[in-house]
Amino acid sequence: MAARLVKRCACLLREATLLAPVVAPVGRLRLASVAHRTLTFSATCPSSHFPGPLSGLVEKEQLSAPCPEHQEVERLIEKATRPEELLELLSDGRCLQESHAALMLIQLSRLLSDKPEDRASLVQDARFQQLLHLVDSQISAVWHGTLVKLLRSLYALALPAACRELRSVEQEVRWRLRRLKYRHLAFLAESSATHMRESPELLAELLLHLERRWTEINDGRTVVALMAKTGHLSEPLMNRLEDKCLELVERFGPDELRKVLVTLAAQNRRSVPLLRAVSYHLVQKPFPLTKGMLLDLAYSYGKLGFHQTQVLQRLAADLLPHVPSLTSGEVARGAKSFALLKWLSPPLFEALAQHVVDRAHTVTVPHLCNVLLAFAHLNFRPEREDKFFSLVNEKLGPKLRSLHPALQVDVVWALCVLQQVQGEALRAVLCPELHARFLGSESPKDQSTFQKLLHISATAQLEHPEYTGPLLPASDWAPWLLACDGKATPLQKELRDTLRGLLGSPSRGSFAVATQYGWVLDAEVLLDTDGQFLPLRDFVAPHLTPPSGTQPLPPGAKRLAFLRWEFPNFSSRSRDLLGRFALARRHVRAAGFLVVDVPYYEWLELKSEWQKGAYLKDKMRKAVAEELAK
């Protein structure tokens, strides 16, 4: 050990003696201090058999020392305003440092960022090819920060995927991934992840390093950018980023909170802990929110189906003063977002309706359709409905048949819900040529459209006696309606069991009754004048498909329909039915039934079977009494 130490010291002193004449006195002092540090390191590390770092440190000092010629080249690169100025540096005989070629390519990509037509001619330029070869030959000497910017620039220049120089830079980046700082990895992910599809190995390794080193993230901008750019590419990485976001969320400003929610909505990730954390800070901190932020937040909550009462109250209240400055597209977007949330704020929706009326000349047909659908979904009718619906008929009437078939059905269905539909609109969507394309389709969207056609046909039959046709033929939709009757809910099961106990005999009631009007009743019973149950099968039932029975109802007999209303059937934080279910209740009453409503919030308060039976008896008595009072 001692012999090795003496030999090492002799080598270091010999190098210092040989180099001493060519350095300035200050440099000599530096060499002495470096030699001393190196000697100490070698003495404490017996495994150091490689040559000492002295020469390397000297070269580093010399490379990093200010050189007027190098500074001049860097200044020319930075101030270049045309690609030609950069390419001329190659032919001027200037001394280019290792990083200068990379800096020139980076500057070229900036200059051509908004000139895609010039990129093709640049790639064919011999000087550009020379520049690529120069970078390729010096790639190992390019610094980390410059290297990641260089790769981004080569992607921006749209080089062919098989370009040797591009592959060389990608390979160099792969070799250095372990040594790159996390900010370099984040920069690569943010700027180049979309271009790495042709290099899946590099992308996979980059995502792996980002995931493994996620604890190194210390700022909100990085985590938000990574969630947006790479979260959808790696599920484990996105989970880590959500954890880091929860850790840093209290530092976020309003724009970062907005970006987090928009990213989650774009990726359809309903991360409840993160949504709760963001909602908490939106409520607790008096952030100034612009109208763009308010619309983005409402859209994100609506897309994810996340309801937070205080947040929605704030969004509606803060958006109300901005309504006069909204465009027709922003009005439609805001109305649609709150409709998805089932959140009806009457002052806000009145303002939106008035905005549409006041700016009728600027409202486009698609935007008006979206506003109309939002109103129908929430069953909202403006106070000045005459002006609003006059505008709707004026704008949509002549153009209805030119709309996409599915949009035609949506518009007419919305008018049916709001009781504003006209015969011409009914005929436009109930013609066989239109509804035939949706019948039998397995697409969920087409099935939803066909269900709306059933509602439209029922409206024509029950609420427009002057309408002469066409209608949907029962042979087409009856099997489809029975097939769509899904799995029974707990409320539906309990309602059936309780009713069976009250009826005593299966012949006195029917369950899951499919009517010719397109609605399925939860249960149906007949009551005589004394309030006793009658056997259903003995009497005529014109509402069934096909109609059954021949014996007319006894005088004074009442036909009752039980309709259960689940939690999703109501507006948020309200006991008002949504448009579709209000339409169902209206149709059932128009078909001659007395409706017995069984809402979830009343049923949940009933604890025993006796209470449930007494509740249904009381509901039936009230329905009959209301009918007699009329």
Automatic annotation (TrEMBL):
Principal place of residence: mitochondrion
Record-level Gene Ontology MF annotations: RNA binding
RAP domain location: 560-618
InterPro entries, alphabetized: FAST_2, FAST_kinase, FAST_Leu-rich, RAP
Top-level taxon in the UniProt lineage: Eukaryota
CDD domains cross-referenced by the UniProt entry: TBRG4-like_N
Subcellular location per the Swiss-Prot or TrEMBL entry: Mitochondrion matrix
GO CC terms in record: mitochondrial matrix; ribonucleoprotein granule
Functional summary from the UniProt entry: Plays a role in processing of mitochondrial RNA precursors and in stabilization of a subset of mature mitochondrial RNA species, such as MT-CO1, MT-CO2, MT-CYB, MT-CO3, MT-ND3, MT-ND5 and MT-ATP8/6. May play a role in cell cycle progression.
Protein name in UniProt: FAST kinase domain-containing protein 4
